[in-house]
Amino acid sequence: MSEVPVAFSVPYAYWCIGGTALYEDALRKGTVARDVPVNHSPRFPSVLQPALDIGVTALTAAALARLAP
Questions:
Q1: Model's pTM, two decimal places?
Q2: Could you say which DSSP state residue 38 is in?
């Protein structure tokens, strides 16, 4: 992702929004690499709510702050 904006000399942001319960549990057990699927994995643990609402709110606030006159 970062190569495209760098090539065109434009700013960018990469957001990761989602739940952390699975990660925190695996971190305590020392099994993050084995038990936490990465993005684009068919096993990626998406929990739609509240991650979607929080993500939309955060990204909207960021866009409005960036685009404000």
A1: 0.54
A2: P
Cβ-contact 16, 58 below 8 angstroms? no
* Pair 36, 26: CB distance under 8 Å: yes
CA-based torsion, 24, 26, 28, 30: positive or negative: negative
Number of structural domains found in the chain: 1
Joined together, the tokens standing for residue 63 give: 């866009």
For residue 69 the two structure tokens come to: 């006159």
What's the burial of 19, exposed, middle or buried (CB within 10 Å: 0-12/13-18/19+)? middle
> For every one of its 69 residues, what pLDDT tens digit does the chain have, with 9 covering 90 and above?
778 899 999 988 877 776 677 888 999 999 999 988 887 888 876 677 888 898 899 999 999 998 988
CA distance 35 to 66: 37
Q: Which domain holds residue 63?
A: 3-67
